[in-house]
Amino acid sequence: MYNQYFYGLGSAKSCIRELFEYGLQQAAVVGKENVFDFSLGNPSIPAPPAVNEAAIDIIKNEDSLLVHGYSSAPGFADARDAVAKELAERTGTEIHGADLYFTCGAAPALIAVCKALNIDSNTEILAVAPFFPEYRPFVESTGSKFVYVPADTEHFQIDLKTLEAMINEHTQAVIINSPNNPSGVVFSRETLEKVAAILTKKSEELGRPVYLISDEPYRELVYDGVEVPWLPSIYKDTLVCYSYSKSLSLPGERIGYVYVPEKMTDAKEMFAAIAGASRVIGHVCPPTLIQRVVARCAYEKPDLEAYDVNRKLLYNGLKKIGYECASPDGAFYLFVKAPGGDGKAFSEKCKLKNLLVVPSDDFGVEGYFRLCYCVAKETIEKSLPIFEEVFNA
Amino acid sequence: MYNQYFYGLGSAKSCIRELFEYGLQQAAVVGKENVFDFSLGNPSIPAPPAVNEAAIDIIKNEDSLLVHGYSSAPGFADARDAVAKELAERTGTEIHGADLYFTCGAAPALIAVCKALNIDSNTEILAVAPFFPEYRPFVESTGSKFVYVPADTEHFQIDLKTLEAMINEHTQAVIINSPNNPSGVVFSRETLEKVAAILTKKSEELGRPVYLISDEPYRELVYDGVEVPWLPSIYKDTLVCYSYSKSLSLPGERIGYVYVPEKMTDAKEMFAAIAGASRVIGHVCPPTLIQRVVARCAYEKPDLEAYDVNRKLLYNGLKKIGYECASPDGAFYLFVKAPGGDGKAFSEKCKLKNLLVVPSDDFGVEGYFRLCYCVAKETIEKSLPIFEEVFNA
């Protein structure tokens, strides 16, 4: 006697996880150096030295009862202030520590927001394909419906007409993820301003806000100076979900936040609803040592050099072979059109050569595959001839 | 437009939190030394030195990408093995790392278990009063009904007849918390064996297990050599929820686990359901540095000397005045009968003297108040004359 839905969620292996485990098995057979695993989006550059220096200094010199003791539910006030200060300076907007609710990473941030936005069993949360597959269980488990706007496969921006048509009386929010996982694309200011115009119009028609949920763990991972517009400045009813997983290479430490702009509709009530939702998912007071670390490292920037080298090497190599690829301006992914048009079949074909690529189906679009280029440079160099082989096979 | 239930949960202040904040206000008026705050259950002894030594050593000498990278969803295999090994030795039973699902503390452990045990909207989870007040939102938010066995106010063990009578076709589990918050009482082996006999009988009648959920963050906080029986050895269908918050004084670091005994009914399916539930509450891969720390500190024991001194001082002082108090064998709480019989009124009376005690109502029993004795010894010494004053007033 156990819950069948959760049993299903817990026993179903994701396609990515299966590929990863297949890679480990194959490595034991053919050697690690002959397996080319582009499946997992785990940062491959270490945390900046300042992170570990701060952690050691805090452990050695701050009061242990404070460092390891409970903070208040949304986090230490001074840590939230420090993070808000940097964010305010960077975005040129007014942001206070009290607007931030620290969370154990972006996942609980998104879940708390989705719970806070669930009004009844008809509530719909809209995502834009391609999307991070966990959005579906996150939304559905809160009692809302998960629906998505099909991908704009020309530019991997947003199909605005369809977005507009899909917003109805039950739509509470639209999830935006830019820089995008899996496409690596950054949504342009033009795209986002049009989204804001649509949401503003729909909010007026419906007489209540249609919120924007900006899931932005890759915010700082952009190349060639591409702009990542700050969404709350474009659309006031934006809830920002952030994680330090990628920017500080701390995915295991589970630290991030929800930012609830002071000027959004019902800001105080929304903050309280997020706090209440966090309580029943067991996310009050995120890990305290790391709270203090990110507060000290608020001005740290990731060193993207290694990712950028990989990005250019892989992107240019694939283009030369003849692959078509979405504009790789951010995150650490390439989203590539599958030769033959079937992402799953192509992934299987690659697997036979120990080349592990994730078919696009779980991301809500068919006919593509995702490559994560946070791997060793050598892996890319050695894999290109195989990419050429499977392209022509 | 936001979820009203979560708004309510997030905006309602707990009685404990209100008292604590009142204490801070009063401290600004009359001086910190004249406020006697027994409201908050925050450890007052620091983490053992080995904890910080391990953290620094791990940061300095282990691979940063491993230390701060994602672990698998239930935690690092080697860390789970290390914790299982000590637990197996201590309990004299067979426990493997694969039976442990690491969590961000006891709260998400309990929530995941309650979610895994929710079968339909009639599902009932039974607690025993007095109980930790968060059980109610934890259970109710999973869609189950929260019901409780009234307190045995004679010994604060368990009213077995009522427990037996309350188990029905919808009862999925009984939550046991020993050493108990708020009573400080440790359930005896005799009590627990009788509970096991009742659950065994009911499970046979119902043709399916009635599970026991053992919430035991205070497991190691016992005095005078009192036994805390290992429940899975008494009743095989026991799910253990544990946190290092109290035993290693790490409440802020959010690390604990669910133990799913290999021999329990549907153990594999239950583990999978807990994993699935953890996914939708955003608790996969608990904080990694602290995972590695608790693995290294598996054999560390808390230094209870300071708590024990406080316990005796406060308990003996109150008894001498004439207060009646539950047997204070564990945790760091005293549960005291309110003179006059009204816990709330007595708490208000104390407040006027800047003596902060928590009325028992939120714990599911009337007419008592809780004292948390993880405070400075001086606070206890200076408060006893005030306890005498309000007793006689």
UniProtKB/TrEMBL annotation, chains A, B:
Q: Name one GO molecular function term.
A: transaminase activity
Which residue ranges does the record assign to the Aminotransferase class I/classII large domain? 34-382
Domain of life here? Answer: Bacteria
The UniProt similarity line reads: Belongs to the class-I pyridoxal-phosphate-dependent aminotransferase family.
Official protein name in the record = Aminotransferase
Q: Which Pfam families match?
A: Aminotran_1_2
- What SUPFAM superfamilies does the record tag this protein with? PLP-dependent transferases
Its Enzyme Commission number(s) read: 2.6.1.-
